[in-house]
Amino acid sequence: MEKTRRRVNTLEYMTISELEETIYYIRMKLEEDERAGVTRMIKVKICEMIKQYKKLRSDEKYLSAIF
Asked: Sorted alphabetically, which InterPro entries does this protein's record hold (predicted)?
């Protein structure tokens, strides 16, 4: 009986600790992926702003050449 109880306790504590480690890893990975997604969105917005700026500058040069 004692031997069985020890086995159950060992399995229980090992399984719980392994699950906690897995949960921690998954949370960290999700946070990392979220940060990467935010960074990607910021880079896309910056690229769009640069394109708009360049277009405005070229339009401005075109208009100044006409007038």
From this structure: V_ATPase_D
Half-sphere exposure of 30 (CA within 13 A, CB side): 6
Q: Can you give the residue ranges of every domain in the chain?
A: 1-66
Q: CA-to-CA distance for 40 and 34, rounded, in angstroms?
A: 10
Rounded to whole angstroms, the Cα distance separating 50 from 47 reads: 5
Contacts of 3 (CB under 8 A, 6+ apart): none
Alpha carbon distance 47, 29 (integer Å): 27
For the stretch 18-34, pLDDT in tens is: 899 999 999 999 999 99
**N- to C-terminal Cα distance for the chain?**
98
Residue 17 is given by DSSP the state H
